[in-house]
Design brief:
By secondary structure, this protein is of the alpha+beta class. 30% of the residues lie in helices and 20% in strands. The chain has six helices and five strands, in the order αββαααβααββ. It is extended and about 75 Å long.
Length: 169
């Protein structure tokens, strides 16, 4: 094995050119260069989905009368769960906790990108109940699927609660 010293004035390109031009040492085996391994792609289970799309059953009507039904919710952090505990509105009325919590994790609602507690307050109760269940599912179970049973044929199947109206595929 030959050692090569590099002087401060020598550039990396010059050293690499010198090494490439140098003949192999006598008696040394030449080994075929192994192909470089392909960069590892993250496997599906190694990735974490942090935002989930949803569609509200009724929808939020803004001040201009526009209906917003589709939106996205992100996973909650520990800070999201702790912050409402010091909110004065929550201290006065513990039921307000879900309003504050939902307003922190909903990232978009139709064209509305600044979702705050006032918007969640003006939502229909069925939509708030849907969002509470959706929040629980994505943060504790990690998905938006629910197992259901048909009341007519008693067949079991799974539905994705994140999108589409009932009966749509």
């Amino acid at each position: 094995m030959r050692r090569r010293t590099v002087t401060p004035g020598a550039g990396l390109e010059e050293v690499l050119d010198t090494l490439a031009a140098a003949p192999a040492a006598p008696g040394a085996r030449e080994e075929a260069a192994a192909p470089a391994p392909a960069p590892a792609r993250p496997r599906e289970r190694d990735t974490l989905q942090t935002e989930f799309a949803f569609e509200l059953p009724r929808g939020y009507v803004d001040d201009e009368g526009r209906l917003h039904r589709s939106g996205t919710m992100r996973l909650a952090t520990a800070r999201d769960e702790l912050r409402p505990q010091i909110d004065l509105r929550v201290k006065e009325n513990p039921a307000y906790l879900s309003v504050v919590l939902l307003s922190q994790v909903i990232t978009q609602l139709g064209t509305v990108t600044d979702v705050h507690a006032g918007i969640v307050e003006r939502m229909y109760a069925t939509d708030v109940a849907f969002l509470q269940d959706f929040y629980r599912r994505i943060n504790s179970e990690g998905h938006t699927h629910a197992a259901v049973t048909c009341p007519l044929c008693h067949g079991s199947f799974e539905v994705d609660l994140s999108g589409g109206r009932l009966g749509e595929s």
